[in-house]
């Protein structure tokens, strides 16, 4: 599917795995610097080997180059939305979320409370906070905000 800004969204292929893991790392360095570089590098391997093969992923390309992806878990949960930082601010993340919403209807997401830009981004797309947790999934003392966008 081609969008007005010239981007194309397509289904994930196993050949995308390394590029998407690299995008994940670069975007996570921007959005999650509080996790630290060593933790991000460890998580990148998990993203490449475990997360990407298990999720329903949609890839966005700009001028034929892969620049981001959204990964859906359990049908309607956004497990990850990552855009190459060089392409931030072009509506690519919004295009991926709206694509997922067209496919799935209502969507849920969890965002670190320390990732202010992500909270603003999801609120602008109609997500509202439904819960807060004082620890992340690895029981680190990092507050996580759960948000939902109705169908």
From TrEMBL:
Disordered, as annotated region: 132-151
Q: Does the keyword Acyltransferase apply?
A: yes
Give the Gene Ontology MF terms in alphabetical order: acyltransferase activity, transferring groups other than amino-acyl groups
Record-linked Pfam families: Acetyltransf_7 (PF13508)
Q: Which UniProt keywords apply?
A: Acyltransferase, Transferase
Tell me where in this chain the N-acetyltransferase domain is found: 7-151
Instruction: Give the E.C. number(s).
Output: 2.3.1.-
PANTHER family the UniProt entry points to: PEPTIDYL-LYSINE N-ACETYLTRANSFERASE YJAB (PTHR43800:SF1)
Name of this chain's protein: Putative acetyltransferase
């Amino acid at each position: 599917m081609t969008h007005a800004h010239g981007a194309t969204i397509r289904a994930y292929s196993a050949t995308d795995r390394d590029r998407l893991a690299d995008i994940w790392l670069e975007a996570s360095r921007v959005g999650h610097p509080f996790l630290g570089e060593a933790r991000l590098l460890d998580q990148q391997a998990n993203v490449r080997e475990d997360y990407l093969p298990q999720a329903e992923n949609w890839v966005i390309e700009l001028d034929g180059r892969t620049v981001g992806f959204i990964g859906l878990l359990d049908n309607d949960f956004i497990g990850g939305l990552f855009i190459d930082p060089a392409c931030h601010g072009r509506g690519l993340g919004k295009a991926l979320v709206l694509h997922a919403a067209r496919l799935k209807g209502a969507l849920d997401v969890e965002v670190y409370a320390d990732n202010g830009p992500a909270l603003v981004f999801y609120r602008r797309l109609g997500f509202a906070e439904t819960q807060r947790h004082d620890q992340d999934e690895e029981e680190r003392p990092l507050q996580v905000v759960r948000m939902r966008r109705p169908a």
